[in-house]
Design brief:
heterodimer, A: mainly alpha, 2 domains, B: mainly alpha, two-stranded antiparallel sheet
């Protein structure tokens, strides 16, 4: 588990580098870029907001598109809530660290102490890598290769497939996935970034609401 | 980017995360507990699909798709995560290089 957390977090770190470079190019100071990675700590939101700033879009658009991409963390938070067992400090700190990778790593484990360990281990490593990556990128600016040349953008969907696979062995899990993917892909051409993935929540609602085994019409 | 915009984004992003964590106990009726358990099954494949086939506001099949296909095949063979990541990123990188 620790090795998996490290590999995923290191990939996140490489994108932290490119976030730092992008932020610097968009006119953010090093302190602003760093503050964003420390305080926003949601890669997709940060990239979206800075991309708007880079083309001199309005602050409202920048913040709005960032927030839209961060909304899915609320859904991860719902699923992860029992991990924090209602205690105040873990809830407040843990909530800040709820992102795609930490949620995927934690929810791939059975509920209980093992899930908690996976969450906190991944969160600590990812926070460290994302922030040091941002600092290095913002300080050094251009000069790093594009992480996409190394295919690193595919590391995240690939990791999510690995981590979600056990949840898809049940009929309901598979039904939720099929509906979620279909909805999300259908919405990509017609909705702002962030909406398609949130819409996939409907997959869980539909598959979870059924009493009879779900998936009869989708498998 | 102004500090005000940055701090609003930070506060909003945290509010979304916290709403999920704190809302679970209070806001989710018992009959939706099954749906909450299925959230990762619905969200993570959707996220992977959008990250692989999405390009701005369009769906495309490019070098990412074979990478994800290799990853999926290896997952079915129960390969460990590191093997899946190396094979998937390697496939996409190779296709981009040629």
């Amino acid at each position: 588990m620790v090795r998996d957390a490290f590999v995923i977090s290191a990939s996140v770190g490489v994108f932290g580098l490119s976030f730092g470079v992008l932020a610097e190019g968009a006119g953010l100071s090093v302190i602003q870029a760093q503050a964003m990675s420390l305080l926003v700590f949601t890669g997709a939101s940060q990239f979206a907001a800075v991309a708007v700033v880079a083309v001199e879009g309005s602050p409202v658009t920048a913040v709005g598109s960032g927030l839209l991409l961060g909304l899915r963390n609320a859904a991860y938070g719902l699923a992860l809530a029992p991990t924090f067992r209602g205690r105040v400090a873990p809830c407040l700190l843990g909530a800040h660290l709820v992102v795609d990778e930490t949620a995927a790593m934690a929810l791939a484990r059975p509920a209980g102490p093992e899930r908690g360990r996976a969450f906190w281990t991944t969160a600590a490593m990812e926070f460290a890598f994302w922030n040091t990556g941002t600092l290095a990128g913002a300080l050094l600016g251009q000069g790093f290769g594009d992480p996409e040349r190394l295919g690193l953008d595919v590391a995240f969907p690939a990791a999510f497939v690995v981590l979600v696979a056990p949840a898809l062995r049940s009929r309901r899990g598979l039904a939720a996935a099929v509906i979620g993917v279909a909805l999300a892909l259908a919405l990509v051409p017609v909705s702002p970034a962030g909406v398609p993935v949130i819409a996939a929540v409907a997959g869980a609602l539909v598959a979870g609401a059924r009493r009879a085994p779900a998936g009869a019409e989708v498998t | 980017m102004s500090w005000a915009a940055l701090l609003v984004l930070a506060a909003g992003a945290y509010a979304a995360k916290l709403a999920g964590v704190l809302g679970a106990q209070r806001l989710v009726p018992a009959r939706f507990e099954g749906a909450v358990a299925l959230l990762p099954a619905a969200l993570l494949p959707a996220l992977a699909a959008v990250q692989t086939f999405g390009a701005e506001r369009a769906l495309v099949i490019d070098e990412r798709a074979p990478g994800l296909a290799v990853a999926t095949a290896l997952v079915l063979l129960r390969a460990p995560l590191i093997v899946v990541l190396v094979a998937a990123t390697g496939t996409t990188a190779l296709l981009r290089a040629i």
